[in-house]
Amino acid sequence: MSIKGKAYVMGAFEHPTREAIGISTPQLHMQCTRGALEDAGLTKDDIDGYFCAGDAPGFGAMSMADYLGLRKLRHMDSTETGGSSYILHVGHAAEAIAAGKCSVALVTLAGKPRTSQGGGGPRGGGFAAAPEAAFEMPYGGTTHNQYAMCATRHMHEFGTTSEQLAWIKVAASHHAQWNPHAFLKEVVTVEEVLASPMIATPLHRMDCCVVTDGGGALIVTSPEVAKRLKRPKVKVIGAGEAPKGTYGGKVDLTYSGAAWSGPKAFAEAGVTPKDIKYASIYDSFTITVLMQIEDLGFCAKGQGGKFVSDGNLISGVGKLPFNTDGGGLCNNHPTNRGGITKVIEAVRQLRGEAHPKVQVANCDLAIAHGTGGSLGTRHGAATLIMERE
Amino acid sequence: MSEQGEKKAPAVRRIFPPAVNEETEKFWKAAEAGKLLYGYCLACNEPHYFPRSFCPFCFSERVEWREASGTATVYSYSIMYRSPTGPYTIAYVELAEGPRVLTNLVDCDFKKIAIDAPAKLVWKPSEGGAPVPFFTLG
What we know:
Number of strands of chain B: 8
Number of strands of chain A: 11
Number of helices of chain A: 13
Low-confidence stretches of chain A: 119-125
Order of helices and strands of chain B: HEEEEEEEE
Helix content of chain A: 25-40%
Shape of chain B: globular
Largest interface: A-B, 40 and 49 residues
Oligomer: heterodimer
Structural class of chain A: alpha/beta
Helix content of chain B: under 10%
Strand content of chain A: 15-25%
Low-confidence stretches of chain B: 1-7
Largest sheet of chain B: 5 strands, antiparallel
C-alpha cells in the first residue's frame, strides 16, 4: 500500500520563541499544539492520533497525551530518530491515516536547551545502556566532532573545501535576514564563515547550527478532513526512512541514510529530484546539507561542494532554493532537533506563505529531509515529499 | 588552527570506566592484559568491531574473538577545540585486520595527523575500571 495522496499536512506552527524564559517544556508542546490546531482550523478533540519523540517529557506518548488532554486518541507513535523524528512522523501519520487508524494526527516537538539543561537526547539513560556505549563513550564524541569527521573524509575523497561548505551557511543567512524570528539575522560571507573560530576541524562555528529553545507542531489529516478545512492543501505523496550505522566496523563516512530514504520517497511520489521546486534539508552542520544533497540525488556523489557554491541554494538566485526560513544554521534548531521546522517551511512554501523575498515562484513540489542522531556513527534518515493540491 | 582551545587548559580529559556486561566481559578482561580483541566469524570469515557474541553480517554465533595486531591507519579524524580540557582528536582508524574503530589519537603532534597515516595501539587507564584502547601515530 502506498501513502501517496492518503494524507494532508493541514496545520503547521513554529513557536516564535528562541529563548523560552518562564515557559515550561510541556507548556511549549501545548502552545505549539494550539498554534497548529488554529492554523488548521481544528480543535483539540478532533485529534485522534499523536506522534512525539524523545523531547516529549515523560513516558512515551502517554504523559504528553494526558497533559494535553487528548481524550480521543486511537493511535500513538513515539518513534525516536533524533532530529529527523518529526519528518518521519508525518510519513507514519500518513500510513496510520491510510490504514484508517486515525484521521487527525498531531506531531509535536519542543524543548529548552538554550535556557535550561538538557534537551535533545533520549530519556532514561538510553545512550549509556546502548551496546556500543563502552566502545564509543570514552572518546569524547559529540555531534560537532563526529559530523566533522565526515567532512574530513569527504574533503579527502572528493576535494570538497571549507569555502564550499561555507556557501551553505551564506545561503541560509541570505534567507534568515527576512525572518523576524530568526536567531541570527545577519547576512554573512564565505570569508566570515572561514574566520569564525574553529570548533572541530574542519568545521568552524558558522558551520554549526544555532542552539535555541522553542518547538513546533503539525496537523496531518485524512483527505476527508482536509476537504472541509479552509487552508491550502498540502498533500503527502512520498515518504522514506532508513537507519545507518557503523556496520560492525565497515564504516563509510561519505554518505548518509538519505541514500536509501530518498529513493524510496521519490519512487513512491513518482517524481525525481529535478522536479523539486523547494528543498528543506536538515542543517545541523554545513556538511550535513552537502552530503544529503548528494545522497538525495540533486547531484552526483562527490559533486556536492560544486553544487552548493556560488549561491546555488539561495532563493531567487540558485537552482535549488533551500531552508528559506534561515534553517537550523540561522533561524531555529529547537531543542537541538530541526526536523519539524523543515516540514513547516516546506508547508509555507507550498501554501505560498513564505516571506515574499524568499517565496519560490509556483512552488508546487517540495521535499523535507532530515538526519537525526550522528552522521559519524548511527542516525535515522527521513525523507518526505509533498505537493500543493 | 584557531585561537580557541590553544590556550593552556587542564591537560587530561577524564576517562570513565567502560560499562561491562555479560557479553563484553571477556573484551575488558583481555584489555587488562593489554590485548585488543575483535570479532571474527568462522561462518562467513568477516571480522567485526566492536566484538559481539554473534556475527552482525551473517548472524552466525560461530564467532571467535581474536587479538588485533594493534597496527592501523587513520581513516578520518577531527581535532576538537570546543573542550574545557583542551583540544583532543577523535578518529576512526582502520585496523590491519579490517574493521574501522572509533578512538582518539593521543600523545602525538596534531599537525602530523593525516588520513592514511599509520597508527598504533596504546592503552590508558580509566578511573577504577578496565584500561581503554587508544591509538597514537607511528
